[in-house]
Design goal:
The chain is an alpha/beta fold. It has 10 helices and 9 strands.
């Protein structure tokens, strides 16, 4: 799909971060867009921004909890009705949160909420929209995993179980779909997106929409500060990441690494897969990842 004009794109988590930037760039190329999110105010800002920048396209926003299959089915039905369509061309399973780091220290609620959004949302959204992709002349499914979809760690002292498990699931699911789609609906392509450290509000969104009953006000304040630093200090902006993703879709690449840090970490994991979780290696890999993210 070299040309996005006169197409219809569905984007989960479209109110901020990479989702917002994907919506902006697609709309600028003449693509109609349907975004969903839990933040109505941020969605309203995104829609207003796009309507100022792009003319002649249709953009709709939809309140949807991606952790609920029922909500996703309702989102799909709203897209069909409001865009007066029987098909969609692009589905970006972009929404995600973090949480549920440790099976020992975290709550079951936090773990399940993270897994439901980061994995369940991708699976349910794919099932919901697949018939509409199949009905299009051209279709492409884009699933966002992470570097934590091939390296399940944040370093030697920070368990990262729920998010990593979900992102590994997204990776395996997407790779399996390459052959499944080729056999059943070959005009629909699929891409796996694996970003490194990108300047998004995922940490803020996790605080807002995750299930974190153990977080006190003092801890929340510290996490809010950390969230701002995470976004501000990222080596790649959300807009730059969106451009990389859309270029990958145009080239029909099934595997899209986003950021130099992601590429370096991928090479390190592939070079020595047996020892990537050894205690000494964890710190070395994390340091290399950070150096790649901050070459200056």
């Amino acid at each position: 799909m070299r040309d996005f004009s006169d197409k219809l794109a569905v984007i989960t988590g479209g109110a901020s971060g990479m989702g917002r930037q994907l919506a902006r760039q697609l709309a600028a190329e003449g693509c109609d867009v349907a975004i969903c999110d839990l933040s109505d105010d941020d969605m309203a800002d995104t829609v207003a921004e796009i309507r100022e920048e792009a003319t002649g396209i249709r953009i709709t926003s939809h309140h949807c909890d991606i952790g609920s299959e029922e909500a996703i089915l309702r989102f799909r039905d709203e897209v069909v009705e409001q865009h007066e369509t029987d098909h969609v061309n692009l589905v970006f399973n972009n929404a995600g949160i973090s949480g549920g780091g440790s099976l020992f220290e975290g709550t079951r609620e936090s773990w399940d909420r993270t897994f439901e959004i980061c994995w369940g949302g991708v699976y349910w959204c794919t099932r919901a929209f697949l018939p509409l992709l199949e009905a299009a002349d051209e279709g492409h499914l884009i699933n966002t995993s992470s570097v934590n979809g091939f390296w399940a760690s944040l370093g030697p002292d920070r368990p990262h179980t729920a998010y990593s498990a979900a992102k590994f699931a997204v990776k395996g699911f997407t790779e399996a779909l390459i052959i499944d789609l080729r056999n059943h609906t070959p005009h629909v392509g699929v891409s796996l997106v694996m970003p490194g450290h990108i300047g998004t509000g995922i940490v803020k969104s996790s605080l807002r929409h995750g299930n974190n009953p153990e977080v006190t006000e003092d801890i929340r304040w510290m996490m809010d500060t950390a969230a701002e630093e995470f976004e501000k200090n990222a080596p790649m902006t959300a807009a730059e990441a969106a451009t990389v993703i859309l270029d990958g879709v145009r080239e029909n690449r099934w595997r899209i690494l986003v950021g130099e840090d992601a590429k370096i970490l991928d090479q390190m994991v592939r070079a020595n897969p047996e020892d990537i979780y050894d205690e000494g290696r964890l710190g070395e890999i994390l340091e290399s990842f950070r150096d790649a993210a901050d070459p200056g």
